[in-house]
Design brief:
Blueprint lengths: L1 E4 L6 H12 L2 E4 H9 L2 H8 L1 H17 L4 E4 L15 H10 L3 E5 L4 H14 L7 H17 L3 E4 L4 H18 L2
Parallel strand pairs: 1-3, 1-4, 2-3, 4-5
Helix pairs in contact: 1-8, 2-4, 3-4, 6-7
């Protein structure tokens, strides 16, 4: 399984679908899988709270993992930033994802202020939810260091999505070559 992690608006879904196309494999978006199981994410968080959402999102991930899914999976933006005690298996899952050679952290830029500005711009351009500059900026400023600290390979997404998918494919080829 190839996992894409990073903030909202980093390009996980767009790049993930293109990467799956290039590799000739399946693509799943964890947010879409969650919505199939539980309904609209914003409504779920409003009614159940973020902690319940995070726990159920981890359960959704585990269902995908148990299905032996082989392909590209775009994780939810906050998935790698949950508190360690949110789920009994979260520490193991987090470590497995973070240390996998087939996990890629997508960030608009590895330069902090450029990442913040572009993430906010992209998030505000999305057609759903009630987003404000202050909220989006606060979220990325709080999570940026967590994404950067992950040992997984970082990929900047300011280039066209197909170029980003090609870059990840090249990195995967290097990983596959190192394994032989």
């Amino acid at each position: 399984m190839i996992r894409l992690v990073g903030p909202g608006g980093a390009g996980k879904t767009t790049v993930g679908a293109l990467l799956a196309e290039v590799l000739g494999c399946a693509f799943l978006d964890l947010d879409q899988e969650f919505a199939v199981r539980f309904g609209d994410i914003d409504e779920f968080i409003s009614s159940e709270g973020y902690e319940v959402y995070a726990r159920d999102n981890i359960e959704t991930y585990l269902a995908i993992e148990r299905s032996a899914f082989s392909g590209v999976l775009a994780l939810s933006s906050g998935f790698m930033t949950y508190p360690t005690d949110v789920h009994l298996l979260y520490v193991r899952i987090h470590e497995d994802i973070a240390r996998s050679p087939t996990t890629f952290v997508l960030l608009p830029s590895v330069e902090f202020e450029a990442c913040v500005a572009e993430t906010v711009r992209r998030q505000l351009a999305r057609p759903f939810g009630t987003r404000t500059v202050a909220r989006e900026e606060s979220v990325i400023r709080e999570r940026y260091g967590k994404y950067l600290a992950l040992p997984a390979a970082k990929v900047e997404t300011m280039n066209p999505p197909r170029a980003v998918a090609t870059e990840i494919r090249a990195k995967l080829c290097l990983v596959a070559g190192a394994g032989h």
